[in-house]
Amino acid sequence: MPFRPNSRPRRAGGSSSSCTHRRNLPARSCLRPAKRRIFEFARVFRNREQGALHHPEFTMLEWYRTGESCEALMDDCAQFLAIAASAAGTDRFSFRGRDADPLAAPERLTVAEAFGLYAGIDLLATLAEEAPDRDGLAAQALAAGVRLADDDSWSDIFSRVLVERIEPRIGNGRATFLTEYPRPEAALARPKAADPRVAERFELFVCGVELANGFGELTDPAEQRARLEAEMAKKERLYGERYPIDEDFLAALAHMPPASGCALGFDRLAMLAARASRVEQVIWTPLPLKDNR
Question: Which of 62, 72, 174, 210 has a C-alpha 20 to 30 A away from that of 261?
């Protein structure tokens, strides 16, 4: 069924200088039984990031469906690829020598399947409800030839393998949905009922480019608080800064119905459809590059 929202929320509290997992918490808080589908084109701002795929200011299409699963969101994403291709008058997306057919049925891989297929790593063996097995993942990554630092955490190692071994291999020829992310990598997603080691989270990749990030939304305020605190602790460790927890969001979460939500990088979608080589080439007023990146 095509995505036809009933309402569009206003931005609450202005724009943030940072965005956790590219999600807009105020929009998520707007879900109520009377508003079963909402969307917005959000202006997003990020410090430090600027390059071929990153710009300090960008546009994000975000939408939510109450009472529906991530499957519906993935169907939406596939429709958006087709719409973008039609608007651009093309049947091929391209980025830096990689091509994909935006009309082809997307491939679907779980993260564990991708780690096994492209890195020879048994990811699920390193996951437990208490804490992930950092040393177990490190040993497998080193055996696969991935270079690590002594102070790399489980999440650091996961990200290295994902970026170096998985992302370049997916979304080529056709789009790829990478599904069932490990719980430690899905701060806003509910655990998968059939296997609580993983979460109801997916990402869409086209031409090796991460394009969208979708969740089965976590609606337990206590669990969400614990996860956000862990995220802020990680941010403080990596960047030396910490943001306060959004108490209004946590209060609203208690009244949020079961839902799924997705955020899609609108500029990146335009970039792929236009076959541009850098995202600022499709942004109306891009910031100048500080150096040749």
Answer: 174
Tokens 């370049």 appear where? 168
DSSP code string of 207-273: TTEEEEEEEEB---HHHHHHHHHHHHHHHHHHHS------HHHHHHHTTPPSEEEEEEEHHHHHHHH
Are 60 and 264 contacting, i.e. CB atoms less than 8 angstroms apart?
yes
71: in domain = yes
**Residue 25 maps to a domain:** yes
pLDDT digits (tens, 9 = 90+) for 214-225: 999 988 999 889
- The Cα 50–Cα 57 span in angstroms is 9
Lowest model confidence (mean pLDDT) among 53-57, 72-76, 164-168: 53-57
Tell the residue number behind the tokens 């609203």, with chain if given. 252
CATH of the domain at 219: 3.30.930.10
Given a contact cutoff of 8 angstroms between Cβ atoms, the answer to whether 6 and 32 are in contact is no
* CA–CA dist 98, 173 (Å, integer): 8
Check the CA dihedral 44-55-173-99 and report its sign.
positive
Mean pLDDT for the stretch of residues 46-54? 81
pTM of the predicted protein model: 0.84
Give residue 145's identity as a one-letter amino acid code: G
Number of helices and strands (H, E) in the chain?
A: 8, 12
160: confidence class by pLDDT, cuts 50, 70, 90? very high
189 belongs to a structural domain: yes
Judged by DSSP in three states, 22 sits in helix
Q: Nearest to residue 71, comparing CAs of 192, 186, 202, 189? A: 202
Q: How many domains does the chain have?
A: 1
SS3 291: coil
Q: What is the domain range of residue 260?
A: 20-282
The CA distance from 180 to 201, in Å, is 6
**Domain-embedded: residue 287:** no
